[in-house]
Write a structure and sequence with these properties.
Blueprint (H helix, E strand, L loop, with lengths): L17 E10 L5 E9 L8 E5 L8 E6 L2 H5 L7 H15 L1 E6 L8 H12 L4 H7 L10 H10 L3 E5 L3 H9 L3 E6 L10 H11 L9 H10 L5
Parallel strand pairs: 4-5, 4-6, 6-7
Antiparallel strand pairs: 1-2, 2-3, 3-5
Helix pairs in contact: 3-4
């Protein structure tokens, strides 16, 4: 077990969450980055959530990504969503700047893998991703980011920049007492297979996706490099 000397002080926040263990690993998907996988005691739910942490390197507010588990995209490389490319982008940002990627066990926006695959069948009949969840008797998005806030507090990360296109992540973290100083959009990972999915996210939940343009890629680069607030 290894603890990085530059790691932030672990806190036992008001929710009682604490760091359980830090395990050093090398990430082949992030140019051989040496990072720590961090586990936790006392999180608000029973999920085995984990943080991938690298001490911030550029003196700015730490960049953090909340990444919800997606077996089909993250592991199998499905082009039906943008999850796999977003994870790779987040690991690349981790290699460049340090910070944290919180890997949250929230498959299918919290409805689980089997239900997500059932929702895919409904989407094949031209039902969007949110309505498909509702037709299965589940919430359109059941994710609660209180667990992410507890993880951040346990890591001592109370003030962050959030790598996200999702305004709900920003809102929930702020509601849970995390100071989100900026929302840094991810790049647009558009494919023929995920165009309808990304359109639904933009129109239904207000994701900041510049559909039809790549202009947000340059904007994202400017924000990460500190040239925009």
């Amino acid at each position: 077990m290894s603890t990085a000397s530059a790691a932030p002080r672990a806190d036992a926040g008001s929710d009682g969450a604490t760091v359980r263990a830090r395990v050093a690993i090398t990430l082949g998907r992030a140019r051989g980055l040496r990072a720590e996988l961090v586990t936790f005691h006392g999180l608000p739910d029973a999920g085995e959530h984990v943080a991938c942490f690298v001490p911030p390197r550029d003196g700015t507010v730490p960049l953090v990504r909340l990444h919800s588990e997606c077996l089909t995209g993250d592991l199998l490389g499905s082009t039906r969503c943008d999850c796999g490319p977003q994870l790779d982008e987040a690991l690349g940002a981790l290699a460049e700047h340090g910070g944290a990627v919180l890997y949250l066990r929230q498959e299918g926006r919290g409805i689980g893998l089997y239900n997500k695959l059932d929702a895919y069948l409904l989407q094949n009949a031209r039902t969007d991703t949110f309505e498909a969840n509702r037709l299965l008797g589940r919430g359109a998005d059941e994710r609660d980011y209180g667990v992410a806030a507890a993880m951040l507090r346990a890591l001592g990360l109370h003030r962050i920049r959030l790598l996200t296109n999702n305004p709900d992540k920003v809102r929930q973290l702020r509601d849970h007492g995390i100071d989100v100083t900026a929302a840094v959009p991810t790049r647009l990972h558009l494919t023929d297979d995920n165009a309808a999915y990304l359109t639904a996210k933009a129109h239904t939940t207000g994701h900041t996706l510049a559909l039809g343009t790549r202009a947000n890629e340059a904007e994202t680069s400017d924000v990460r490099n500190g040239t925009r607030a």
